[in-house]
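Hi Y.,

Following your request, here is the sequence exactly as I used it, all 535 residues.
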Amino acid sequence: MVDKPKKTDLNIYLAKSGAVMPEDVIKDIEKLKCFKISVEGFDACRVYIKKTFSNLPRWTNFFTPSIDPDEFGFNSSTGALLYAKVDDGVFMLSFGQGFHLIDSAMIEMNFGLRTSLNLIDEESIRSIDKSSFEQHPTQSREQTGIATELQYFGLNIEQDLLRAITGKPQDERFGKRVSGMDALKLNVEVDLQKLPKLLKSIYTAYKDERYKKGPFAWVDHIGEVRDKQLHAALDSIILERINSGAYQNIWISVPDIIDWDRVVGFKYSTRKYAPRYYDIRIPDFIESLKEKKVDIDKLYKRKIYCVDSDDYVVYERPAYRFIYAEAVYKSDVYILNNGKWYKVSKTFADQVNLFFSGIDKYNKTLPIYNDETEGDYNERVEAEDPGSFVLLDKKNIRVTGAASPVEPCDLYRNGNEFIHVKRYGGSSVLSHLFNQGLVSGELFQMEPEFRQLLNSKLPDNYKLKDVINRPKTNEYHVVFAIISESDEDELSIPFFSRISLKHVLIRLQAIGFVVTVAKVHVDEIKKKTKKISGL
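Below is the corresponding structure, written out as tokens. Let me know if you'd prefer a different format.
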């Protein structure tokens, strides 16, 4: 009678196609014990074991000198790595602490996730890990007590990244539960002799693209680039373009949400006589460098400073974080946003860009920006035309039950236009603007209390006649006015901001608003003005 294989926890990694030898993917391989194993079905099979060391647990110091540390005993960490070639795939299976032996730069990122998407029963998902691609990304895990479908996990398929998934496989050969991120995790009845067949099935599932035809079709829309070699190749493309003066599809902008009423300029050095610029531009940054060119180390080490009217630094980050860029590499579209590269499906990129190009433009003019801050601009606009504009900047409204006060808008025009004004910035800056407009718009449409409180801030000639009943469809407008010093007539914003705007616009239109975007041009002299510190 043949013994039935016992259930075993497997953590499976797939090496990149260029990693053809064990030393290509295993760290410090010369320090490891190696055992060659003959298994039918494997082109090669080896087990690598790291020498174990026994140490006192670190926490024993907490009890010293009250208790002799030796009383607690010793920790002994051990680990092994099974290296196996099957067909044209190279697999590593880690046991214990064996995953520390793997060179993470040489494995296929998201191998486990992609394989899981093809193995999992779409109606039997247990948990997901997701993150956003904005400035302050949320890393979260959602799980359910019962297996269910993806739609119940609250994913925004245009603004969330799926990082990992756990569920029940369709095929019982893969056990009762499968999880995947970079590694594929299974608990299956298997032994060494049956392992080649299992890995062949897993490799087939990994290469399959059937997940693109179901509820997971959106997963490849956007993905963070975590491959170090690809990241370096993309950086090289951007560096070459910057150093050659080819700035097309490369911008430099503030990556974080900052207080624009305090920030009046930017500096590339904290030296006493370093000039202060109204805005940040790549040529000005290059000119501030001694060598007049950049490399990746310089972009990480040199900082850009946001300063107030006294040249006090209120915000600083490495220059690399300020760069927003779009690049095409091997026919794929990539976006550099706030220090991270993302791969974007060309089909998805085309859809988002087409939607953005079709957004209605504001059909009235707004004054040219020639001010120190957004607040100054808003005040001047009202002062110059008080018959048309009402200043609502900083005049927040707190509705019962709301978590925080809400600003209705910056400027209220002609009794039916909520104008939200923001200086051009990175995707998180503009996405914050759009979300402010959404929150204000939803409260205005849904909450009589909000309309009543808004009325108390409006002059008599602009007060709402009816604060109880919801406004009629298309009666009110939301205008997103972005201050931009670019020479183009058309407004251009980062790709991820376009996604956020699409999401906000659809929701605002659904509750009855007309939504438009406007570009506020900057005075030509203002663009060229710089102030020398200390003079």
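The longest helix spans residues 427-446.

Thanks again,
Q.
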